[in-house]
Amino acid sequence: MPARQVPDRGPDNSSHAENPIVFYDGTCALCHRSVRWLFERDSAGLLLFAPIEGETARELAIEPGPDPAGWSFLLELDGRVYHRSNAVLRAIALTGGVRKLARILLIVPRPVRDGVYRWVARNRYDWFGRSSGCPIPDEEQQDRLLP
């Protein structure tokens, strides 16, 4: 699915207007681990995080669909929403350092990258389970977790 425009956040969320937002499945243990991994490596504190089924996603008209197994990892960046492998690779690159090289993998044809992504996504609950806990381990960093 191509990236699409995101509506303006409005005055209530203007403080986050410049930051990319990672949307994740709030009940997926793999997604929570991925958020922790990104959080620990994002030393500049650039990325914000929000569950795809949360208030921020609704405000930005992010529609995950009724089936959590089909939900995608999303990245809202510069007014565009990236899905699946495009979102993952861009989010990794945004953490800086040598991880910027993750963008090189964007040369792999998207159907191949997204095929692997979908295979993992379909099996993530079976392999990693579900989680109801907050993916952010440190209380100091709670301001980067959006509702």
Mean pLDDT: 80
Q: What CATH architecture label applies?
A: 3-Layer(aba) Sandwich
**Largest beta sheet: what is the strand line-up?**
1-5-4-2-3
Task: Tell me the quaternary state.
Answer: single chain
| Stretches with pLDDT under 50, minimum 5 residues | 1-15
Which fold name fills CATH's third level, the topology? Glutaredoxin
Sheet with most strands: 5 strands, mixed
How many structural domains does the protein architecture include? Answer: 1
Layout of secondary structure:
Elements (H helix, E strand, L loop, with lengths): L3 E2 L15 E4 L4 H13 L6 E4 L3 H5 L14 E4 L2 E4 H11 L15 H19 L19
Parallel strand pairs: 2-3
Antiparallel strand pairs: 1-5, 2-4, 4-5
Comma- or semicolon-separated keywords:
147 residues; globular; Glutaredoxin; single chain; 5 strands
Describe the structure.
With 147 residues, this protein is α+β, with helices and mostly antiparallel strands. The chain has one domain (17-136): Glutaredoxin. It is 33% helix and 12% strand. The protein is built from four helices and five strands; from the N terminus they run ββαβαββαα. It has helices at 29-41, 55-59, 84-94, 110-128; strands spanning 4-5, 21-24, 48-51, 74-77, 80-83. The protein has a five-stranded mixed sheet. A hairpin with a 2-residue loop joins β4 (74-77) and β5. It is globular, with a radius of gyration of 14 Å. The model is unreliable at 1-15 (pLDDT under 50).
Give a quick precis of the structure.
The protein is α+β, with helices and mostly antiparallel strands. Helix content is 33%, strand content 12%.
